[in-house]
Amino acid sequence: MKTHNTEPVIVCSKCLGFAACRYNGEIIPAPYIEKLGKFCRIITVCPEVSIGLPVPRKPLRLVKVKDKLNLIQSETEIDWTDKMEKFSREFLDNLGEAHGFILKYKSPSCGMLAAKYYSSMEKGSVAGKGPGLFGKAVKERFPGHPAETETRLTNFSIREHFLLKLFTLARFSEVRKSGKPKDLIDFHSENKLLLLAYHQENMRKMGKIIAAQKQNGIKETIELYEELLIKSFKTGASHNSHINVIEHAAGYFSEEIKKSEREYIEGLKSDYRGNRAPLSALRSVICSYIVRFDIEYLKRQSYFNPYPDGLVEVSDSGKGRDLRHI
Ligand code: SF4
User: Fold this and answer.
1) Could you tell me the residue ranges of all domains in the chain?
2) Does the pLDDT at position 322 exceed 60?
3) Which of 161-165, 194-198, 276-280 is predicted least confidently?
4) CA of 189 to the centre of ligand 1 (A)
5) Contact 233, 196 (CB under 8 A)
6) Residue nearest atom 4 in ligand 1 by C-alpha distance
7) What pLDDT digit, counting tens, does each position of 247-260 carry?
8) Closest-lying ligand 1 atom to the alpha carbon of residue 28
């Protein structure tokens, strides 16, 4: 099956297992991020320490006045907004290649969502929720890139969606760097079933973009292709789309196997449809036939091995079912 030699770059909040830099001097254990570090290059950042705040420190709070978010330190009431906005801009300007982000949930600086917005410095004046200042800058600068919080990644489906996008975008970076039409064609071919599951319409459009490469030039072709690639993973794939891909793949060997084996696959499909079996169970049965019948085309499909096996974990907290990127 497809092997992985790409190393995605992830930007991670430093307090998630890397340094005791939280306002209260604590570090948050993050074993899964530690595991990701074996397969990815992790760039850590603590925006609050980077703008000159000490550890420990009085916590910060986001105060929304009209439409403007202000980052104010409780008790001292010092306004850190300008410094944080300047740091975020400069950090992201100088970041270079980044394929994904894991940022601390609810933080007024790093938060990608659910940071509390207050209407004043008074207690109990929560007026809404949203991203923190650094998290907001990331979302604006890298729209559509995989970006999650450490808590959402405990959900199996969200984690799988994050990893799949992360490794696909990292593989695509190699195509962008090489700028060779052949590499783009190979990428499209190897990700065909993945794209079929996630966005059939875009998959066709991407094929047309490649076909028009001679007229548009490779640079523009790669830009147009990447735009659609990112959009294709905006939401997760439906059960029906996955079943469609599984049936497509099974078409390569179904005539070669026994009736009882076909019935077993049908049973698994029905269990998956009814949420009684995970997609991975169905996928691994199909993989066993791909290996048994040595089907070269399917062996190269990223759909059957979208990220390294070492990152597969079946645990699921059940938290946060929304697969849309945040
Ligand atoms: S959430 Fe962000 S700013 Fe706060 S301690 Fe962690 S890394 Fe630093």
Assistant:
1) 9-154, 177-313
2) no
3) 276-280
4) 41
5) no
6) 22
7) 999 999 999 999 99
8) 6
